[in-house]
Amino acid sequence: MSVVTDTGLQVERTLLAWVRTQIGLGVFAGLTLHWLDLHHASALFMALLPLLLSLALYCGQRRRFQRQRDMLIAEQGHPSILPVMSVGIGVSALALIAVFAI
After folding, report:
1. Mean pLDDT of the region 89-100
2. Where are the domains of the chain?
3. With helix as H, strand as E and coil as C, how does 1-47 read?
4. pLDDT at residue 39 tops 70
5. Which helix H or strand E contains 51, and what residues bound it?
6. What is the DSSP code string of 61-77?
7. CA distance 36 to 52
């Protein structure tokens, strides 16, 4: 039986997934600004919330990368729930605002 060693690729893929999430939130914020003249307050909130989420993810990116790398080296660890839950709640809030405002 051969042993598969991960030289950090799993951490890199996870990092790239978070970067794609940040880019998607930024694109959504930019597209929402298109509706600013039709839906003033709701469009502004819908643009600011994803930008703030993206900024928060960016600020914690290095810490998450190092933590995941250390978990792989130690072969044990716990997933970080706060970033996943914050993005999930933020996207759910955006969906509710979009349903009721548009």
Report:
1. 83
2. 9-101
3. CCCCCCCCHHHHHHHHHHHHHHHHHHHHHHHHHHHCCCCHHHHHHHH
4. no
5. helix 40-59
6. HHHHHHHHHHHHHHT--
7. 18
